[in-house]
Amino acid sequence: MSGLSIFNAHPRLYWGEYGANFDRAWLKIDTTRDGQRGYLAVGSLRVETTGVLGLWEKDGRWTSRAFPHWMTLPSHYSLSEGRKYHFLGAWLLAIAGALYLVWSLVNRHVTRDLLPRRVELSPRHLWQDVKDHARLRFPRGEAAARYNVLQKLAYLLVLFVLLPVIVLTGLGMSPMMNAGWGWILDLFGGRQSARSVHFLAAFALVIFIVVHLLMVLLAGPVNEVRSMITGRFRLPPEKV
Fold this sequence. Notes:
53% of the residues lie in helices and 11% in strands. The protein is an alpha+beta fold. Strands 1-2-3-4 form a four-stranded antiparallel β-sheet. It has a two-stranded antiparallel sheet with strand order 5-6. The radius of gyration is 21 Å and the shape is globular.
């Protein structure tokens, strides 16, 4: 939410080193020239988003801004406050994520529970798992106590790709870090490319969280949440 507040200061994304109002953006949230409609543009695709993005209503007044007040932190427009919230959240995310990653490596959670077996990576096995998820066929019995291959791949993607990329690109865009460690931006192809990658990685992380919570609700929220807090997990009985 604080990231969306920062994005509102310049609601465009570019590739490369530079980006300004007259440069070609690959993503843009804006209003039409007459100020009557909001839209989202991704490349050549343009979708009207009046009332949600670009142009939205609050307390009877229409506001021309990319993301509405209920999506941002703070709810009013303030780039400086948004940056303060964002840095606070970044420290919490980085410290908690680093501790979790180190502990998962020390107690072999990654190698024991998350690394897929070779047979699980076969196209046939992957496709079957996709179909089971699409049909909401959750594992039962002893199989419910183990991660399936889609869960394993999702967790590995978050732990070893999305979170490190978010932290690195965020550090690279910091002026002080940019002055000392300019190689970070070079790694991602420039400041504007790092900003785009940061946005996409954060968006992917949000999708992961939404899907994760949805799966918890569908699989039985009481049993799932209790297992997260206490470690006790009731195995769903096998179907006859």
